[in-house]
Amino acid sequence: MSSRAAVVDTQGIEKVYSMGDMKVHALRGVSLRIEAGEFLAVMGASGSGKSTFMNLVGCLDRPTAGAFLLNGKDVSRFSRDQLAGVRGREIGFVFQGFNLLPRTSALENVELPMLYQGVSAKERKKRASEALARVGLGDRVDHTPAQLSGGQQQRVAIARALVNRPVLLLADEPTGNLDSQTSIEVMAIFQELNDQGLTILLVTHESDIAEHARRVVVFKDGVVLSDRPVQKRRIARIQLAAEATG
Ligand code: ADP
Ligand code: MG
User: The whole model's pTM is what?
Assistant: First the structure.
């Protein structure tokens, strides 16, 4: 019996966008393995292919060439519908702009991904409440996004990403709209989730955010430029405690 499959295994994936006669090679052969329990940050200049890579790994799109195994399953030839199914069951997304429904309570926002998974109303409410408690918002379940700070909104989005118990959490610039203190609070949640075993793939252009991860991959012009473990890892909980005591 071979060892357990990697959560993410991309094998020479390429992505070419065609726009009329123009072809853009956004990815030119990216091979990356992400094992269960890893916390990986992807960095790189604008246009280097980070979001394209996230979209492929997140089953939002298919590679032009190469294979992509998610948890051992080759999803690179899946139909759009099959991809949507895998995405809903196995992947949690967190975005820079939170993407919450306005005038809708935190609880209902978090319940949303379960609507398509045939979970009963009672179970939805229970799981959504638990996910909100997990991100420290157990006392804010009835608040709408407008009644929450940016950091709290991002925590609702993280809770929403967790309710279907994904194998992989994807976050594209999750701290891009947050001040530095709030960014560290959000990184504390990611680190706590990762310590509990969740596999996380984060895109950021800020190196001090990337240093909260365990491994950093840098993209350049659609290829992997470097791939290294984080040496002096930042621990958000310790940074926050140091600030609190002044
Ligand atoms: P990053 O997230 O690192 O800024 P992207 O993955 O968004 O990079 O983009 C990589 C390259 O692919 C860029 O040259 C970009 O212009 C191009 N690109 C991205 N998405 C599309 C698209 N939907 N259609 C055409 N070109 C695209
Ligand atoms: Mg991008």
Answer: 0.95
